[in-house]
Amino acid sequence: MSPSDEGKARLAFIGAGGFATGSLYPNIHLVPQIDLVAVCDIVREKAERNARNFGARHVYTDLEEMLDKEELDGVFVIGPAPQQYELAPHVLRRGIPVYVEKPSANTAAEARELAEIAEANNTWGQCGFMKRFAYVYTIAKDIIARPEFGELNMVSCHFGQGPYPQIWGMDSARRSMLVGQLVHIFDLVRFFGGDVATVQAIYKEVTDTQFAYLVNVRYKSGAIGQLNLNGLETKTGFRDIIERLELVGLGSRCAGKQRTTGPRSCPARAGTCTLMSQPGRASAGRRPTSATWARWRTSRCAASGSATAGRTSGTATRPCASPRRSMRAPKAGGWWSCERRAKGRRLRSTRKAKGNQRRTEGPPRGRSRQDARCRGRPA
Predict the structure, then answer these.
(1) What pTM, to 2 d.p., does this model score?
(2) How far apart are CA 375 and CA 327, in angstroms?
């Protein structure tokens, strides 16, 4: 993409529907390098609304007219997969880069055709896979790159949700889930494991909208993995999601997990990343440096999750508050987390509310047995 003389990328949107308006347009102002030139939609009222609300200068209802009149560095083509497959070639054939949401098309052959059109016109396209940018997974990527983690040998993922509907004119809900939802997981495991060499899969259907896939994978790097992908674990629809990724080296394991509970949840801002190693790997069990803690603290605060690192005999944890107390690792005897400490505070408050008699029967004032265990001290 060649920036304009003003030093900004002159971009346009084709599509002003619900997803684009709710998820993409509101983020434009966060990128100062973007100059939103035009909005195009077949419903003029929608295009005018988004141009007014998000600062575009021109409105169109015909994409060819927009492409003829505007000098653009890139175009967002946002809509259902069949619509993206139909409209994106009009932009690519003019040599203009395109961004589309996932999936770019309903079939692999159609997606490959879009890539070939881009290459033939000396341009490129980008597909909106966002999981590799989630905080919890960028932390995991940093962890497995460290020498103490060793070579990555296994990449496994568990993804569970509820019923998934039939969409975009596809022949079944099971295929709709593969193309419309599970492509995120396929991109995520490739982000960590690289390209895939071989795949083995089995499938079980429980209802027309609830089913499960078990997939064994061998990556070109030599690593192996397994994917547990199902629509059986929740009952409240396809936005209630359970997600867990495990990365195994040699004597070390990194596990990241996320939970999305509704359409307003943001999986990119919630999660937990844990690094565990065998005691023999001393370097992985040492107390992290202050610089490492500072980096993890920033990610943890922003993600409203947590990051932990340690050995199987204990854990050193750094939540956002009380850094000195939190860095004190407990003695052998199980995991330690800010959740357990929070439980201790709740228990302490309950005892105070019940009066002096209750406090004298418990541990010294201001410290509960649970809180004592959380600090790694004898109760």
Answers:
(1) 0.67
(2) 10
